[in-house]
Amino acid sequence: MASLVGKGRLLLLALLLPGLTACAPGTHTAYVTLPSDNAVAVFRIRDVSAAFTTIVGSPYLTGASPGPVVVHPSGKFVYVANRIDNTISLFQINSLIGSLSEIMPRTATALDPVAMVMNAGGNLLFVANEVSSSISVYSINSESGALSLVAGTPVPTPPNPVAFALTPSGSFLYVVNSNLASVFAYAVSASGALQVVAGSPFAAGVGAFALAIDPGEKFVYVANSSANTISIFSISSNGALSPVAGSPFATGTSPVAVVTDTSGQYLYIANEGSNNITEFSIDATTGFPTVITGSPVSAGTAPLFLVPDPNGNFIYVVSDSTKTIAGFFITSSTGALTNNGQSATTDVAAGGMSVSK
């Protein structure tokens, strides 16, 4: 009995060691792709402090030039799109220690899978293929995580889609293209089939580059990197978009990423050219943005993309030139961001990041 008790204590100690488990209380897990290393790094993040700890065994090999990464809502699987291989790597997550094991073979995509998004139910994965100018949709096997191409896809798009966003209900998909000042809208069926929304495309700003949708599914936000503006649209019941009064709105220089907090009350835009983040509070009825006092906030050098914390406490800011991921605390009463000094460093610039719930 004493031996068994001793072993139990050792197991408990092991479970609490930093970096060992992705399931420790008060933590969640971040997956960061490293294109130049052909790998994905895994970090445990403390919910309260946003302190980063590297998971044992990280980083893990992927295909060539991994970019977008998505974690399945079940916490069982991670999907990584390899932009040079034109494949998707499927990893199984070890629930005890948080390590990754790739499940072969990789799934073929069209040319240059530049963006991915998964629906909330975890049964459909959408992939934007920049060079092929198309969108592929895959159904997901809930037991194995395996992908199967949905009939009728890939669906052709205008040239060079670079980013897209799916409404929380999974009903509509919105796409922006690097050379067109427009948003293209698609209705999504239960099977994942896509149908162009009446009135699409909808005019945005020059250099439409990134977009986001609020959790309440009321608004679409489009960062216009060449115009230095953000376009804000209301979403109608059929998925059509209408600009809110006053849109577009000024940002910093070269906005390249946009997110809301988990409440949808606050909007954040990363400005790569001016090295800062523009902060807005959003009127829940009209969608009109009001600049938060103290905005913009300094975000280091060349912030490339933003990832919201699933618990609503932080925004993670990924810098291209400094190869860092920094945690910015969200002041719940105002939405103002504060760099809390917690960060992780990667040996090469990141290509994508996803955080588990």
Offer a quick outline of the entry.
The chain contains one helix and 33 strands. With 357 residues, the chain is mainly beta. The strands form seven sheets. Strands 1, 2, 3, 4 and 33 form a five-stranded antiparallel β-sheet that branches. Strands 9, 10, 11, 12 and 13 form a five-stranded antiparallel β-sheet that branches. Strands 14, 15, 16, 17 and 18 form a five-stranded antiparallel β-sheet that branches.
Question: What can you see in these coordinates?
Answer:
It is a single chain. By secondary structure, the protein is mainly β. Helix content is 4%, strand content 50%. It has one helix spanning 2-16, and strands spanning 27-34, 39-46, 52-54, 60-61, 66-71, 77-82, 87-93, 100-108, 113-118, 124-129, 134-140, 147-149, 155-156, 161-166, 172-177, 182-188, 194-196, 202-203, 208-213, 219-224, 229-235, 241-243, 249-250, 255-260, 266-271, 276-282, 289-291, 297-298, 303-308, 314-319, 324-330, 337-345, 352-355. Strands 1, 2, 3, 4 and 33 form a five-stranded antiparallel β-sheet that branches. Strands 9, 10, 11, 12 and 13 form a five-stranded antiparallel β-sheet that branches. A hairpin with a 6-residue loop joins β7 (87-93) and β8. The longest helix is centred in the N-terminal third of the chain and has 15 residues, at 2-16. Residues 1-22 have low confidence and may be disordered.
Strand content: over 45%
- Structural class per helix/strand content? mainly beta
- Rounded Rg: 20 Å
Mean residue pLDDT: 92
Number of β-strand runs: 33
Largest sheet properties:
5 strands, antiparallel
Distance between the termini: 38 Å
